[in-house]
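ugh ok fine here u go
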Amino acid sequence: MDAVREDRLESLIERYERAMLVVTRRMSALFRNTIAGDLTLDQYNIIRHINLRRSCTSTELSETYCVGKSAITAIVDRLAEKGLIRRTQDQSDRRVIFLSLTRKGERLCKTLTERIQSVVSRYLSHFTMEEVSTFIGTFEKLARLLETADETGEDPVRKGAAAAGRSGRKRIVQRKQGREKP
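structure:
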């Protein structure tokens, strides 16, 4: 990659980092305010995940949200105390516990999801359908790359760059530090 493209890449990465920080921080705050009084954002994310899959295990939640099982257990315990989640032991392996939503959990999940979708739609309404589709498609592609890296333990981006004999980000850092090799 030539120096001009590396500079452009660096600029794009910085723009991504700034925008991602603002979007993540502001949307999280909006979501928290939208569901305030009912659940925490983490609790909502857990019941939303369970609702979409109908049932799952704590291990699946731990892997999905990249947190320890003890953190998931604490959240699940609070949700069970509120009567939103039920635990069901697997008949073939008593060590496995499936989590599912109670009727109360399903109703609350539906209500909170509608509120959150209303908030998001107010922002997405400022874009054309083509812009929204392009954005979501690109974001999903990034998600797939990250999931692949997580599942395989290999970073497909670095692997591709190494196979091509270049590592753009590494060269940018080296150039900034005055250590780039010709």
